[in-house]
Amino acid sequence: MTAKLKDSLYPVLFALGFLILWELAVRLFAIPMYLLPAPTQVVSAIDGSLWSHTLVTLGESLTGFILANILGLVTAIIFVHSKPIEKGMFPLAIALKTTPLVALAPLLVVWLGTGYSSKVIASMLICFFPILVNSVKGLKAIEYEAWELFSTYKGTKREIFWKLRLPTSLPYIFSALKISTSLAIVGAIVGEFVGANKGLGYVVLVSSYHMDTPVMFSAIIASALCGLLLFWVVGLLEKKFIFWTRSDDL
Amino acid sequence: MTTAIREQTDSAAVRSPGNREIMLSLRDCSLSFGNVPVLNRVSLDVYRNEFISILGPSGCGKSTTLRLMLRLLSPEGGGEVTYASPDLSLGMVFQKPVLMPWLSALQNVMLPLELGEKKKFSKKEAREKAESALRLVGLQDFLNHYPHQLSGGMQQRAAIARALAADPTVLLMDEPFGALDELTREKLNFELLRLWESPETSLSSIVMVTHSIQESVLLSNRVVMMSPRPAGVTDIIPVPLPSPREAGMEELPEFHQTVKELRKRVKHL
User: Fold this and answer.
1) Is the ipTM above a cut-off of 0.95?
2) pLDDT tens readout for residues A77-92
3) Which residue among A59, A144, A213, A214 is least packed, with the fewest CB closer than 10 Å?
């Protein structure tokens, strides 16, 4: 336990050291605030509205994240069970993936307005591909002998799916979830850039118009923390669900 | 001399060479994967109360033969796989343990008991059967351990328990101990014989694929030799060792003689 505590202490120490250096550098070289505000200036720029903007962005990205993953997993299940659908639709999925989200975002706002839904869809679009690809791969990753075992004992298709394919694919699914936690935030913020009146992307954009760099910094940091939070939650779930493999990677 | 010992063996057990009951038989089974012929008219009878080893060069189709017996594959061109009764119960032990890493040892052994359209056992019955199967292979203290917490030998024992739990009459084994170290392998070989002879199991016949000539002689009543691909049965050689088999029988002249005989035939393949 103490070793674990020590391990988590290191990043905290490094972060503190970095912040102190930053503060000192800004003061020592008298860097103007609109270029680089000191950490203390950023902190004093934080007010209650940042919190509500953060909740908006977090809500949009989380909704997009969850919907995309459900939809992606279901699509993957259909792909695995039907070769023609997989062959016909995979190129479309790749085309969707290669279309830059930034190019699509204005269209989404035109279609869906400046509210919640255009951001959710932007977030979904960007999260959809990783889960689709990984689930397809994971659902197909069963050992041949395991399939033979199920067949020997007259396992039904349904049993093969629930008791073999799905658990086998869990590690693949979780690695997609981890990738898309940060993507989900990107999607929501890009959506907010294009047209919104709340959310962290909106704050970043507006503060850039006013050269209010401390506020901009606070919103950037808040968005990074949102990503970290999602990543951390998914990591916890992964540890709980996939106890049989050791994943030390990020 | 060979025949004398063989008769002695047969009278010791309840087996008469004349009217032996066939559990399972392959007739003229040929099979090819794509354009590659794998099996060429394989015929083999598996009798009640016998231990058969299938010996042959690697990649010759020994595993495929087991899969034919399991009816996971079907023979081509008039070949036939017949069972003594339609509800003949077969068990399979693979080269790898093939345990589900997300299930405990107990849950892994219960798995086959709970598969299929018609539920063969209630949850409670399945649990009891699984527990007793794990006890048979000496894993009673590891019921709730997960595969990654078990050694290779223990994993393979759990796989054997899984096969035994479903009360198979015929047990098929595909190099079950091939991936294990020599010491563990020897130990498990004798444990397997003990299980086969034990009245606690329903086991009547075992068919085991192996690479090891010594192992095949030590364990089995008959050794089936297969030729390189497309494989056919070239020879079936009876092993004139008394049963029950025990450690130390490797010293008997009959053992050496049979091993020598098999070596000679392997060279001719």
Assistant:
1) no
2) 999 999 999 999 989 8
3) A144
